[in-house]
Structures are given as C-alpha cells and as structure tokens.
C-alpha cells in the first residue's frame, strides 16, 4: 500500500508515473526489452529524450535562445560546473547570496576557482530568512550572480526573482516546476531531479546560449555545458531510465494543468500546514513569514523530547519521512508536486491529534 | 514478450532482476513507497548501498586496501577524473595504450592535464588487434599506465593483464564481472554500469587507497575519489535506483556461480559465434584471433548491400540491436553476462539460415 511520503529527496514520485514504468519495465513499446536496455542513440530513446526536452520547454516556456541540458552529477556537480563554465569570459569573480547549507556548498566550490563576493548572508539568524534585496552588496564586474531560490534544509524561499546586474544563476533543485518563472531573467537554471523532476541521478540545466563561450581552459569534459549542448546531452551515455522517468513526470505535470496548477496547489498545501503551525501552541515554524518555503516546511515541537514519539506515531499513521535534516534536527515536511493535498490534510489532522494528546 | 538483446549498451539486464524491480517498484520492502522515493541516507537504502558494495567485493575478491566507489558521469567522467586524481603526486606524465575509440577518448582528455606517452597503438591496422607487450614503449616515470582491456566498438580484448612499472589503470566498462581478475595488480579499475553491471547512470570505481592523495589542486569536487571514498559515495545524492539495480545484478551473479561461471559462459558463447564466423564463407570477423573480445563480436557480411536485409530479418526473428557502431558499420553482437547461451544459439542458427538463403 502506498503511503504519504514527505521525503526531502529522493522524493515522492507521481503514482501514475510509477505505474506506467512498472507496467512497461520488461517490455517497452513492444520492443521486447526494457527502456533501460536500448541504446541511447536508438530512434525510440531519441524520441524519449526529445519529447522530454520539449515538454520541459513547454512547461517552463523556455525561450529558443536557451539550451536544455540533461546532466549527471546532480546539483553538486553544477556547483563545480558553474565557475568552470562562467569564469573564463573575462571576469574571475562572482556574486553569491548565502542563505544556508546548499548556498554554502556552491560558494565553497566556486571559491576554489575565482573570487567569490558574498552579496548577503542570513547566517546571523541561522538562515531562517532571505536577506532583503536593498541590503545586497552587489559587485559591478561579477561574471554571474548565484542564489538558491529555495533552501531545502532551512525551508527558506525567495518570494521574488532578484534583479541583478550580471547573469543570474539559480539552484532550483527543490522548487523547479512548482510555479511559472521568467526564464529570460536567468543566465543559468539548474536542478537535481530527485525532488520535483524524477529519480536521483539526473539533473536539468537551462542555459542562455550566449554564456556557452566563457569556460575556463582546463574544464573537464563532463562539466562542459557547451559540449553537452552540442551533443544533445549525449556526449557519453546518459542516465536513460532517469531521463525517461523525468519525461513521464513532465507529461503528468502537463496533464495536471502545468506549473500554474502546481503553483496553486503548492500555495494551498503549504498554507494549510503553515496556518496550522501558526495557530498551534505546540508546533512552530522557525522561518520568517515572508521567506517560508512552499516546498520544504521545517517545524519543531515545543518539547523536543517528544520528537521520537512524533516520528514513531506519524510513521505508523502512514506519514513517511518527517524527520528534519540531520544537521538541524526537528521535523520537515516536503511538499513537492507529487505530494497530494490529501497528504497534507492527513498530516495536519495527525499533528492536531498529537498536540491534543501531548501538548 | 522478451527478445534476445545484443545491444552494446545500455545492454540487456537479467530478466529476474527486472522482474524483482517491477514487482517492488511501487512498494519496496513494505515501506509504502518506491526505492526511488527514500532518502539515500535512510537505513533501508544504506543497507542497499553497503550490500551492493560487499557483493561486488565478494564477486571480484577485492582486497581490503581498495575502496569501492559508486560514481556518476560514466566512464567518460573518469577519463577526466583519472588525470585529475593521479597527476598531482609528482609525475605529470602518464602511459596510455591506444587500441581504439574508447582509449582515444581517455587519451584526449588526459592530454589536457599532463604529458601522455602513447606506449603502443593498433591504429595501423584499424584497431583490429592488441599490440604485443614486447613492443610497448613504457616510460620510467609515469604516474600511471592506462589501458582498455576490452574495446566495445572494435571488439578487441587483451587476453592477459599487462605487467607494468606504474599503477595500472583499466577501463573495464565492457568486460568487468565477466571473469576473475587479480585486483591487486591494478591501481584503479573503472566501469560504466550499462554493460555488465546495471542501467546507465552509475559507474563503479575500485581504487587502491594509497593513490587517494595524488590529486591535482583544482580537482572538481565531483571528480574527487578521496571525497567519494570518505563519504561512502554519498558526498551528494547518488543515483539510488541505478545503485539498487546494480545490487540486484550482483546478487543474481552470485546465484549464477559468480564470475567463474560467467567466464565459462562467456567463453562458450563467444566461441560458438567465432567458430561459426570462421567456418562461414559469408560472414567474417575483422579482429585478429588472439585479440577477439568475448563481450563484443563485430562481424561483416561478404556483401554489405545485404546489411539492411540482415538487420530487418534478424529483428523480425527476435534478435535485437545487431547493428554495428555508427562509426564502423557492419554488425556487432554484444554477449554480456545477461545475454544467455540460447540467444547466441538462436543468432548462429539465424545467421546460418541467412547465409544459405543469401550467400
């Protein structure tokens, strides 16, 4: 029996997607083999790859002057790829906003290849808010400006798109496809798949094509966006099953009404949980109200000695993976696209009951 | 209906593995979700990861002073990783044997980071043989010695393990787990999974631990073996489904009798096909007899105008993916572990019939 899964990633996938994959796992398209067992250059897989790209282009209204890449190595691989691809065009410095653990990893890796300017940081209050735009110390000559629109661990989300001087680079791992975005305002968007796209092992990159000529000379081939773009993300064998599953998720998203429907749904789901947290005397959100993530909702119990009981009982109630990240503790409910409203309703009902019994 | 699949990669997987994956795709271990939908740090997935490593250690008798890595980016990613990890220990030069397209890619990437010495090449006869060991021009001070035990495209395989002065590095993508190997003779073994291990999107690395301190200073984090080893190949989210499936393949291999049984079977399968090719007046092998691959068997028809008919009829007969690599033409039958003897018997019977009708 399928349960409600609030895992931060690898996260819940849409059940119809998994059912289709299950049904055709041994014999795909009547070929007599699995989609995993065909060449990535076969006509059948080429169709999968191209359709997935087109569906993603449709979903996000990606302009024609942007390349869509399907990459390996996750967002972490892109933490390296970004400076390698963008610091060879003249400027050797980059602007970064520091909003938590994922921003920090991106900053640390970029610092190995160029000068990183920390435009703003929310470290002073344990990364529980997004620094106000009028406080940012932007450079005049940055090669790019990097930020993390949604911090998966801290549960902090920027409620707006930054207006900046240099090409805007965004790690959208945990918020991509949850709302419409003006792609044309970005230089590079990237996202590990395992939250809102598909299984782990594939990442999506969306890059404005004029940025493909700024790589540092020694860039490893596997990190090179230009090579990936020129080869249709098949310079070497891509993760075909993950690409196929991502394509099924894109089709499912379109059938649900696309990112507009997902935006509405994620507003509804997160509001339901935050409203409950704000009304509760027992549970609370550690995140500033104007920066609360629609995707990842951390919360704490008034008495942390009850954490273990909460996790035991919630799991027994069919509410999975509510434990907070090992580095911060507490609880976290991730509400990605594949998590239905009913899951959040069940969670809130459980929490209300738990509070009544233990509060 | 499942057909016989001779794809060079992504290649056939063992049917029992796919059946198990299918059965538990929506509800794994009674958790109420897929193996794709749990955290890579959950106790359940940790068990998958550790068991897969131990099974691979058992299968290949990997000594304790070797680390086993599960990596992203394929063997191509390792073409970069190898010089980055090994050229920072003093010597900035490396020895490479050039035996075909895959060796060439490894050489080209390494040449960007250090001095590559081509120890030997079989380019003079279109990469149809392995250069004799007594002809090699080995360096005295190489950081490592790289070779490709089996060239997937050319169908050329070294029938022995080279004895060399520097740490031996081998791209075993298309021959790993097809026979026992003396791991202790190697410094680093690597293999993309999509031939003899699992689906595409994961690669295995086996590295002698004293080689983990020779990285070039600017090595990208995602290519760093030491970081991968220290973090249990979970510095970032690994491709969990591919890792899980690889683990199922390892279990299946053990149940079949391990690599000894696979060695016997691959001898039998390849001998059946080569014997037929050598007896035939119509089909032939372009590869020198002492260097013929047990894994990838390229062959040509006496009249290439019949290639198309051969492919049409073989596919209709349930024999899939026999077309040779786009760069060389002709045919190729890949006989990896998951390809049963019956598949080769059916192929030979078909070819005999085709020859009788068209020869």
TrEMBL record, chains A, B:
<comment type="similarity">
    <text>Belongs to the class-V pyridoxal-phosphate-dependent aminotransferase family. SerC subfamily.</text>
</comment>
<feature type="modified residue" description="N6-(pyridoxal phosphate)lysine">
    <location>
        <position position="195"/>
    </location>
</feature>
<dbReference type="InterPro" id="IPR022278">
    <property type="entry name" value="Pser_aminoTfrase"/>
</dbReference>
<keyword id="KW-0963">Cytoplasm</keyword>
<feature type="binding site">
    <location>
        <position position="102"/>
    </location>
    <ligand>
        <name>pyridoxal 5'-phosphate</name>
    </ligand>
</feature>
<comment type="pathway">
    <text>Cofactor biosynthesis; pyridoxine 5'-phosphate biosynthesis; pyridoxine 5'-phosphate from D-erythrose 4-phosphate: step 3/5.</text>
</comment>
<keyword id="KW-0718">Serine biosynthesis</keyword>
<comment type="pathway">
    <text>Amino-acid biosynthesis; L-serine biosynthesis; L-serine from 3-phospho-D-glycerate: step 2/3.</text>
</comment>
<protein>
    <recommendedName>
        <fullName>Phosphoserine aminotransferase</fullName>
        <ecNumber>2.6.1.52</ecNumber>
    </recommendedName>
</protein>
<feature type="binding site">
    <location>
        <begin position="236"/>
        <end position="237"/>
    </location>
    <ligand>
        <name>pyridoxal 5'-phosphate</name>
    </ligand>
</feature>
<keyword id="KW-0663">Pyridoxal phosphate</keyword>
<feature type="binding site">
    <location>
        <position position="194"/>
    </location>
    <ligand>
        <name>pyridoxal 5'-phosphate</name>
    </ligand>
</feature>
<dbReference type="InterPro" id="IPR015421">
    <property type="entry name" value="PyrdxlP-dep_Trfase_major"/>
</dbReference>
<feature type="binding site">
    <location>
        <position position="152"/>
    </location>
    <ligand>
        <name>pyridoxal 5'-phosphate</name>
    </ligand>
</feature>
<dbReference type="InterPro" id="IPR015422">
    <property type="entry name" value="PyrdxlP-dep_Trfase_small"/>
</dbReference>
<dbReference type="Pfam" id="PF00266">
    <property type="entry name" value="Aminotran_5"/>
</dbReference>
<dbReference type="InterPro" id="IPR000192">
    <property type="entry name" value="Aminotrans_V_dom"/>
</dbReference>
<dbReference type="GO" id="GO:0004648">
    <property type="term" value="F:O-phospho-L-serine:2-oxoglutarate aminotransferase activity"/>
</dbReference>
<feature type="binding site">
    <location>
        <position position="41"/>
    </location>
    <ligand>
        <name>L-glutamate</name>
    </ligand>
</feature>
<keyword id="KW-0032">Aminotransferase</keyword>
<dbReference type="InterPro" id="IPR015424">
    <property type="entry name" value="PyrdxlP-dep_Trfase"/>
</dbReference>
<keyword id="KW-0028">Amino-acid biosynthesis</keyword>
<comment type="function">
    <text>Catalyzes the reversible conversion of 3-phosphohydroxypyruvate to phosphoserine and of 3-hydroxy-2-oxo-4-phosphonooxybutanoate to phosphohydroxythreonine.</text>
</comment>
<feature type="binding site">
    <location>
        <position position="171"/>
    </location>
    <ligand>
        <name>pyridoxal 5'-phosphate</name>
    </ligand>
</feature>
<feature type="binding site">
    <location>
        <begin position="75"/>
        <end position="76"/>
    </location>
    <ligand>
        <name>pyridoxal 5'-phosphate</name>
    </ligand>
</feature>
<keyword id="KW-0808">Transferase</keyword>
<comment type="subunit">
    <text>Homodimer.</text>
</comment>
<keyword id="KW-0664">Pyridoxine biosynthesis</keyword>
<feature type="domain" description="Aminotransferase class V">
    <location>
        <begin position="4"/>
        <end position="347"/>
    </location>
</feature>
């Amino acid at each position: 029996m399928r349960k409600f899964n609030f895992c931060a990633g690898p996260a819940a996938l849409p059940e119809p997607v998994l059912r289709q994959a299950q049904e055709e796992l041994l014999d795909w398209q009547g070929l007599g083999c699995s989609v995993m067992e065909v060449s990535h250059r076969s006509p059948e897989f080429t169709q999968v790859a191209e359709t997935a790209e087109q569906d993603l282009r449709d979903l996000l209204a990606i302009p024609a002057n942007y390349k869509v890449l399907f990459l390996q190595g996750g967002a972490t691989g892109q933490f390296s790829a970004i400076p390698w691809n963008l610091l060879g065009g003249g400027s050797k410095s980059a602007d970064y906003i520091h909003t938590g653990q994922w921003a920090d990893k991106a900053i640390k890796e970029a610092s190995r290849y160029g000068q990183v300017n920390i435009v703003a940081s929310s470290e002073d209050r344990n990364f529980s808010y997004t620094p106000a735009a009028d406080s940012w110390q932007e450079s005049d000559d940055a090669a790019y400006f990097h930020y993390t629109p949604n911090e998966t661990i801290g549960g902090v989300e920027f409620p707006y798109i930054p207006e900046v001087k240099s090409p805007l680079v965004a790690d959208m791992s945990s918020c991509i496809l949850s709302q419409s975005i003006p792609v044309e305002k970005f230089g590079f968007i990237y996202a590990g798949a395992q939250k809102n796209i598909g299984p782990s092992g594939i990442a999506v990159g969306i890059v404005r094509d004029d940025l493909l000529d700024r790589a540092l000379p020694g860039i490893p081939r596997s990190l090179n966006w230009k090579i990936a773009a020129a080869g249709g993300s098949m310079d070497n064998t891509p993760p075909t099953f993950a690409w196929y599953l991502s394509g099924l998720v894109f089709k499912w998203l379109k059938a649900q009404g696309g990112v507009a429907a997902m935006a509405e749904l994620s507003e509804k789901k997160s509001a339901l949980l935050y409203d409950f947290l704000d009304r509760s005397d027992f549970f609370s959100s550690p995140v500033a109200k104007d920066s609360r993530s629609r995707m990842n909702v951390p919360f704490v119990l008034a008495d942390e000695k009850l954490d273990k009981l909460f996790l035991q009982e919630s799991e027994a109630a069919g509410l999975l993976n509510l434990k907070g990240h090992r580095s911060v503790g507490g609880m976290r409910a991730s509400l990605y696209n594949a998590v239905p409203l009913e899951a959040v309703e069940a969670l809130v009902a459980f929490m209300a009951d738990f509070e009544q019994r233990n509060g």
